[in-house]
Amino acid sequence: MELFSLLLSLILFISFILFFFSIAFKTKPTNEKLKLPPGSTGWPIIGETFEYISMARKNCIEKFISERQKKYQSKIFKTSYVGQTMVFMCTPEGNKFLFSNDNKLVKPWYPKTFDKIFGQSDNKLSESPEEITSIRKTVATFFSQPEALRKNLGIIEAIAKEHLQKFWDGKQEVVAHPLLKNFTFTLSCRLMLNVQDSGTIEELEKLFSCIMSGMISLPVNFPGTKFNQAVRASKEIRKKFEVMIRRRKMEIMENVSGSEDSSKDFLTLLIVQKLKDNEEVIESEVAVLILGNIVAAYDNSSTTLASILKYLAELPEFYEEVYREQMEVANSKGTEESLSLEDVKKMIYSWNVASEALRLQPTIASPFREAITDFNFDGYLIPKGWKLHRAVHATHKNSEYFPEPDKFDPSRFEGNKIIPYSYVPFGGGTHVCPGREYARLQILVFMHHLVKRFRWEKVFPDEQMIRDPILVPAKRLPIRLYPRQS
Q1: Where are the alpha helices (DSSP H) in 389-428?
Q2: Is 372 exposed, middle or buried (0-12, 13-18, 19+ CB in 10 A)?
Q3: What pLDDT is recorded for position 8?
Q4: Is 401 within 8 Å of 92 (Cβ atoms)?
Q5: Which site in 63, 230, 324, 412 is 20 to 30 Å from 213, CA atoms measured?
């Protein structure tokens, strides 16, 4: 009996040893061999959010990034930001990877505050690749196709001239940034919704200002907070949009002759396209879509124009080159002759100036993505559910890709000097922003008519761009105007 017990114990012991070694030396799945990206998640819940915001307010997000790259000796790192474990992608290769794998390995992700403000918790738009592709195609049709660009160019120029005549001509001094926002918002209302009444535009712009102020604020939904004001403003503006959408849908459906001009504004094109595809036009969903497109067009272009005005005031040698180029275009035309797409194509130097302003002052810190599955990037495991951030400052302000990165130098964009995917203010690859050409027209047409009329200087010579929380001039960019002699 004792011998049997001894043999049994020996067998169990040997079995345990064999099992242990089989586990220890077993070939593990590929992902288990990979290590997680280096980094720290900082304090519980808040992570490193406050450190990031602190750097953002000083408009030096690149320092937040470079300090961690240096500390961890890695081109990507993990942190905890806005309550999420997040991987910062800091290279052109990382940018390309995210562009190439949208809706394959990653999908768009926004903080919950965005859902609350934009109403998507109640009116969730489809996030299927097919829906996203369809929306991008509609946006591209209206804002990027040559025929649409020609039509939009005429509207952009008319509104730019009217705006300058109303708010700039005859003034010795203006506060530029609010006026630039008014210009781009007026344009968005006209092209998106065919709204032309100045009173309605003014009312809508006030609501949009509340939305933009609260969009990246602390998510404290108490009366009086920026977040609460943004939520309330968004609800109000979506109700107004729903009324417009319902009215427009009825007009289109009653137009039995089929002669409705679907190119007159983006809303009409969107509704006509949905009806052709036998899709239901749900007013609340279309309102969210229109809201998102106007937010994107409204703030980005106006802030880019503010950056351009800032640099041209500080660096008169670049202003003179822009003026020379724009006068060559102007002198090639009749006195009252409108700009053409061919004229805009000649504004090469002016667009290089705008591109350099966008490199130094990207309007947004870039969108977020969420891993839909575990995957390997650059030897690191990115687990499903982790968030990823395409850190545009990491390449725009990196001397490896842009020598003397803090220097304003439009010549960087001459020829083919730019390393692919290092300059990504409009995205890249198949995911380049479908409104890129529209933004280009807005910026160049406004620059053309502004430099023809004025040179200018900053009232506060040391005024800089800051992020509070979005990119803005610290003091709203007041400038003194010096009219050009006709």
Answers
A1: 392-396
A2: middle
A3: 35
A4: yes
A5: 63
Alpha-carbon distance 313 to 311, whole Å?
5
Q: By C-alpha distance, which of 386, 363, 224, 246 is closest to 297?
A: 363
Q: Which two tokens stand for residue 2?
A: 């004792």
CB 470 within 8 A of CB 216: yes
Checking 79-82 for CB contacts under 8 A at 24+ apart, the result is 79/39, 79/40, 79/41, 79/42, 79/47, 79/48, 79/52, 80/41, 80/42, 80/46, 80/47, 80/48, 80/49, 81/47, 81/48, 81/49, 81/52, 81/387, 81/389, 82/49, 82/111
**Measured CA angle at 398 (ends 438, 430), to 5 deg:** 40
Q: What is the pTM of this model?
A: 0.88
Contact in structure between 363 and 300 (CB atoms under 8 Å): yes
In 3D, which of 376, 181, 397 has the Cα closest to residue 294? 181
Tell me the two tokens of residue 17: 């040893």
Interaxial angle between packed helices 348-360 and 283-314, expressed in degrees from 0 to 180 and rounded to the nearest 10: 100
Using CA atoms, how far residue 201 sits from 187, 204, 232, 442, in Å, is: 10, 5, 18, 18
Name the DSSP class of 26.
Answer: S
CA-to-CA distance for 1 and 422, rounded, in angstroms?
77
Q: How far apart are CA 343 and CA 446, in angstroms?
A: 13
Q: Is 28 helix (H, G, I), strand (E, B) or coil?
A: coil
Q: How far is CA 229 from the centre of its chain?
A: 22
* pLDDT for the residue numbered 129: 63
Task: Report which residue type is found at 435.
Answer: G
Rounded distance between C-alpha atoms, residue 120 and residue 112, angstroms: 10
Q: Tell me if 370 sits within 8 A of 378, measured CB to CB.
A: no
What's the pLDDT tens digit per position in 6-38?
Answer: 333 433 333 344 333 333 333 344 455 789 999
Residues 133-172: b if buried by 16+ CB within 10 A, e if exposed: ebbbebbbbbbbeeebbeebbeebbebbeebbeebbeeee
Tell me the pLDDT tens digit for each residue of 153-177.
999 999 999 999 999 999 999 999 9
